[in-house]
Fold this protein.
Amino acid sequence: MFRVQRSYRSPSVGASRPVGTEVSKPGWVLETGPCPGVEGTGAYLPDEYLLSLKFLFGSSATQALDLVDRQSITLIASPSGRRVYQVLGSSGKTYTCLASCHYCSCPAFAFKVLRKSDSILCKHLLAVYLSQVMRTCQQLSVSDKQLTDILLMEKKQEP
C-alpha cells in the first residue's frame, strides 16, 4: 500500500533525516508505494512552497499536510467517471470532498468558507488538492450504485 514519510532531503547530497510537523521546516518528501494509474515514487515540496502554503492557509496548511502524511485521503471513483474524495479527519469523522466543485461536508467549510468567507477552503479540501498534486491518495473503485449509496449515507448522517 502506501508508506508516507516526512523527511528533509538535501537536493545536492540526497541524504534524508526526519523532521517535525512544522511547515517552516525544510522540505517534505512523500515516499509512496504503487498508486494505481500513477507513476513516480513521491513528491518533494521545496521550502518556498511550504512557506507559501503556510502564508496562504495558516495552520490549515500544517493540518492538511498531516492528513496527507497519515494517508487520510481516499479517491472513490465509479465507472461513469464520477469522483469523490473521502477524508478521515483528525477527529475520526469522515468527510466527503468534491474537488470538481470545491466542496467539503465538514462544519468548518460551512462556517468559515460559506458563511463567514474567512477562508477559501478547509483543511480537508486542501489535503485533497495536495494529495492530487503529490499523487499520494489511496484509490477505491466502486460501482455507480455503491457511490450513490456512499453519498446518500453521508447526507443521512448530517444533522
